[in-house]
Amino acid sequence: MTGAAHSGAARYAGTRVARIEDARLLTGHGTYVDDIALPWMLHASFVRSPYARAAIRGIDTSAACALPGVRAVFTAADLNPDVREQWHTAVGKASPETPRPPLAEDEVRFVGDPVALVVADTLYLAEDAAELVDVDYEPLPAVVDYREAEGSAVLVHEEHGSNVVGELAGLPASALDDVFDAAAHVASASIFQHAYAPVPMEGRGLIVDYSRATGELTIHSATQSPHEVRLFCSRLLGVPEHRIRVVMRDTGGGFGQKIMVQRDEMCVMLAAPKVGAPVKWVEDRRENLLAAGQSRHEHADVRMAFDGEGAIQAAVIDFVCDCGAYPTPWPVGTAAAVGVLFPGPYGVPRASFRAKALYTNTVGRAAYRGPWQYESLAREVLLDIAARQMDIDPVELRRRNLLRRDELPYANPNGMTYDSISPLETFEQALGLLDYDAFRAEQAEARSEGRHLGVGVANYVEPSTPGFGAYGTEAATIRIEPSGAVNVYIAGGSTGNSIETTVVQLTADALGVAIGDVATIQGDTAVTGFGAGAAGSRSGSMTAGAVRETASILRDRIVAIAAHALEAAVEDIELAESRASVRGSPSAGISFADVAALAYFNPAKLPAGVPAGLEASARYTAGTGSIWVNATHVCTCEVDVVTGQVTLLRYIVSEDCGPMINPNVVEGQIAGGVVQGIGGVLYEHLRYDEQGNPVTTTFMDYLLPTAAEVPAIEYGHVETPSPGPGGYKGVGEGGAIGAPPAVVNAVADALAPFGVRVTDLPLTPSRLVALLQERNEP
After folding, report:
1. In the chain, helix, strand, coil percent, each to 5?
2. What is the largest CA-CA distance in the chain?
3. Which residues of 465-496 are buried (b: 16+ CB within 10 A; e: fewer)?
4. How many C-beta atoms lie closer than 10 Å to residue 27's C-beta?
5. Residue 259 CB contacts under 8 Å (≥ 6 apart), including other chains
6. Rounded (5°) CA angle 338-343-349
7. Which of 491, 499, 224, 191 is CA-nearest to residue 368?
8. What is the CA radius of gyration of the chain?
9. Which is nearest to 658 in space by CA: 551, 546, 541?
10. According to the model, what pLDDT value does residue 5 have?
11. Which of 232, 235, 274, 656 has the greatest number of beta carbons closer than 10 A?
């Protein structure tokens, strides 16, 4: 970028610019997959298994096919043979342990497993026809509880030879025996987290429109990564990428569930070319809870050793997770991340981990906001247990062990090197916002009155903006139109992370353009450069880099044209408010519209070496493997010890996500994650019975927190710039990581006088009453 051409201090980034997308979303004018209607469009409905495990002895589709308006009924014999070769090419090399056939072939492996796909003129007709497909099942024994899977004679995938998907480990735990033997204090626990799910506002869905005339496919998808959908479809069908266009408009939440293409979507991609008309499939809520994926179902045996002053000497975690029948993506890497990150933002000299993933006859594990979240839950709950054992206030124990800025960069014992974080600073800020000492006094007074208040604290550090593979690069195209209006093209789209607004802020600052002159086009693979989409809390930082790289090219061109037109030196040109001016002479200037007119309509008048037009594309590549983010969560609550009801009183988050592009967006992202974390502890439970039947497939059974249950969230911000563009960091996942341990610790603190130890989730009223009764039994 030309060093002498200035736009002054950032005018938009860092300010609470109103979200651009809100105007259409809040007035019901968003465009989701189900809002799209194409000529001759057909509708799809799945026939799903009612058994957790059964052999398929036969499928009779004749009654369904005879129904007027039914265009096709597909089974595995129709779709699966088309993909075996391409399927291996697409993902087999990366994850051979987790095959995923589009439709169940000889055996169904969970309730909801897709067995057949009906395509008909209307959705209602497709659903009626699906009821007529007669599948001859032979029920078989199923393994439902993952804690029994490893030793079970029942194998989810017999060809795999075991129910162990895979395992990874660091230093053996036995190598730390000497540390634990010599420790002044040792705390240990087995901590269990139940299954819950992302439950986005909009379920999964897509429309696949295949043109027989051109051999091209257009896919409208509810996705977090349109380019991933295109790449996957290309490999799945053996169709060149340039013949596939994926368009995402508004996507009603993803939270990780919509990053990867799942089996249902594969089926629609395969079926559409066979029927020769656009095919739409949008799952309903029951399907989403039944077949879209589970998360968080796991436990670990954890231990920490402390010296006489409460300093952590070593930490050990033995982690095991449920991956269902068809996990997406390969779950062993995420399981290992739990182990690697277990030391958290504390000075931990030595550590050991083992991580194991197991198959069960339940819905497959899917990514969910902070997929390694368990490491913070287990560590922070264990720290509270340790504090009570040592008769130290949990806050004081953390204060003695938190990393300080003068200790950075710090390599945790598992090889993760933290930098540009502020664990102690966010901790003290959050406690100050609460007035911790005042709360403890209030708690003591309440207990004297028979009321039970509690406070829970949780710290975490997480890697955002992964700098490897496709995640480590992002492209942008910026076009200044002949009118002077600016369009910026970015791969990502509207999934709730407000990249629409932030990219406009970034572009306005980078070019010195009035923000009202900037618009963005996103989520269309036909016009945007390849990008990994919304994943890994990467959008803000990576987009900032892409905009910076692209804008620098255009700025140089604008400055050169303006300097030539104004007969001024290049170094004297300033850009601001869509105008190029001569420094010191405000009246001497030229608008961007006039610069564009020269660039497009009078190329002969451009300075030598400057090309016609005002359009540029560039790509940013991350210079670091991860950008680290940290935060402190503080929750206070009251527990009714008679009914087990938990009432949240205050919730405080102090987050260090670097400089904020838009504080409204940052706080909205934190709030969304916090509410999901609260729901996961107190309300949500994706539950199965002993036979593998899901029993929470509607919102009558699967409870979500509402505004009535969640207190107003209070925010504190500490800004430590990252080594990435603009110093920005990711913020998308942290709320969902920090909230569960903060809520659990608050409840445990409220019940501490009863000697209750809280290590099993969820914390439903009945569960808490049972814990209290267990303590009161003789």
Report:
1. 35, 25, 40
2. 96
3. bbbeebbbbbbbbbbbbeebbbbbbbbbbbbb
4. 8
5. 223, 224, 225, 228, 367, 533, 534, 535
6. 140
7. 224
8. 28
9. 541
10. 45
11. 656
- The 10 Å Cβ neighbour count of residue 97 is 17
Q: How far apart are CA 460 and CA 380, in angstroms?
A: 9
pLDDT for 460: 98
Measure the CA–CA gap between 741 and 357, rounded to whole angstroms: 22
With beta carbons less than 8 A apart as the criterion, state whether 377 and 707 touch.
no
pLDDT of residue 474: 97
SS3 string, 29-47, reads CCCCHHHCCCCCCEEEEEE
Q: In this predicted structure, what is the pLDDT of residue 86?
A: 43
CA dist 21 and 362 (Å) reads 37
Residue 247 CA to residue 524 CA, distance in Å, equals 4
- The secondary structure element, H or E, covering residue 628 is strand 627-639
- From the list 296, 300, 314, 295, the residue with the least C-alpha distance to 354 is 300
Nearest Cα to Cα of residue 323 among 375, 363, 263: 363
The answer to whether the CB of 656 falls within 8 A of the CB of 422 is yes
Q: Are 495 and 216 in contact (CB under 8 A)?
A: no
Amino acid at 48: R
Q: Which position has the token pair 């062993």? A: 332
The distance from CA 291 to its chain's CA centroid, rounded to whole angstroms, is 18
Contacts of 518 (CB under 8 A, 6+ apart): 485, 486, 487, 488, 504, 507, 508
The label of the residue with tokens 């919102």 reads 699
Distance CA 73, CA 120 (A): 9
Rounded distance between C-alpha atoms, residue 412 and residue 32, angstroms: 44
Q: Beta strand 54-60 with 107-108: parallel, antiparallel or unpaired? A: antiparallel
Residue 365: per-residue pLDDT? 96
- pLDDT at res. 757: 96
- pLDDT at residue 348, as a whole number: 98
Write the single-letter amino acid at 681: V
User: From the DSSP assignment, how many helices (H) and strands (E) are in the chain?
Assistant: 20, 28
The amino acid occupying position 699 is F
CB 555 within 8 A of CB 510: yes
Q: Which residues of the chain carry a pLDDT beneath 50?
A: 1-9, 84-97
Which residues are CB-contacts of 424 (< 8 A; sequence separation ≥ 6)?
399, 402, 403, 404, 405
Burial class (CB in 10 A: 0-12, 13-18, 19+), 776: exposed
Structure tokens at 679: 């729901």
β-pairing verdict for 114-120 and 486-490: unpaired
Query: Which DSSP state fits 345?
Result: T
- Stated pTM of the model: 0.96
- Residue of 189, 192, 196, 344 whose CA lies nearest to 678: 196
Q: Any idea what the Cα angle at residue 389 is, between residues 388 and 390, rounded to 5°?
A: 90
Contacts of 770 (CB under 8 A, 6+ apart): none
pLDDT in the model for residue 204: 98
Beta strand ranges found along 67-184 (DSSP E): 70-74, 107-108, 114-120, 134-139, 164-169
Query: How confident is the model at residue 667, as a pLDDT?
Result: 98
Give the three-state DSSP class for 575: strand
Please tell me the predicted confidence (pLDDT) of residue 689.
98
Confidence (pLDDT) at 776: 75
Q: What is the pLDDT of residue 10?
A: 58
Confirm if 483 and 593 have CB atoms less than 8 A apart: yes
Tokens 């996961």 found at: 680
Q: Which helix (H) or strand (E) holds 615?
A: strand 615-621
Burial class of residue 57, CB neighbours in 10 A (0-12, 13-18, 19+): exposed
Neighbour-count burial for 617-648, b at 16+ CB within 10 Å, e otherwise: bbebebeeebbbbbbbbbbbbbbebeebebeb
